[in-house]
């Protein structure tokens, strides 16, 4: 077997980072549009409204992403015998951190 035929642990990382960046840009753009429309309709500062929206949604996504996904059943209302699985496997908490960071940047450098 040649060295090029065995996949490394970095195989596909570039594509995954591109998808992650596109997801962050799409989420930020959609939230900015909704917050800007809301700010214009209510007469509030657009930059501050977008920053607050990024804070709220970013914090919610972060908490949702790191919340343990096992151990307690909401349907049955009891603890199961299995061990908690830990945080979810999806990188949704990273999108939350990016949005929260964008909110910080908008607070520091308003447009």
Name the quaternary structure.
single chain
Taking the alpha carbons of the first and last residues, their distance comes to: 56 Å
- What is the mean pLDDT? 84
Question: Could you list the spans in which at least 5 consecutive residues all have pLDDT below 50?
Answer: none
Q: What characteristic shape results from the CA principal axes? A: elongated
- How many individual helices? 3
Q: Which percent band covers the strand fraction? A: under 5%
Report the biggest beta sheet as strand number plus sense, adding barrel if it closes: none
What is the succession of H and E elements? HHH
Number of domains: 1
The portion of residues assigned to helices is 55-70%
Structural class by SSE content: mainly alpha
| Rg measurement, Å | 19 Å
Kindly state the number of beta strands.
Answer: 0
Written account of the structure:
The chain is mostly helical and 111 residues long. It has one domain. Helix content is 61%, strand content 0%. It has helices at residues 13-42, 46-66, 92-108. Helix 1 crosses helix 2 and helix 1 packs across helix 3 (92-108). The longest helix has 30 residues, at 13-42. The model has no long low-confidence stretch (mean pLDDT 84).
């Amino acid at each position: 077997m040649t060295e090029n035929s065995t996949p490394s642990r970095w195989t596909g990382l570039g594509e995954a980072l591109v998808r992650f960046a596109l997801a962050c840009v799409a989420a930020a753009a959609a939230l900015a549009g909704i917050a800007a429309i809301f700010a214009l309709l209510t007469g509030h500062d657009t930059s501050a409204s977008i920053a607050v929206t990024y804070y709220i949604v970013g914090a919610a996504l972060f908490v949702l992403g790191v919340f343990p996904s096992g151990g307690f059943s909401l349907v049955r209302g009891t603890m199961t015998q299995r061990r908690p699985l830990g945080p979810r496997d999806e990188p949704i908490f990273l999108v939350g951190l990016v949005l929260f960071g964008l909110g910080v940047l908008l607070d520091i450098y308003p447009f």
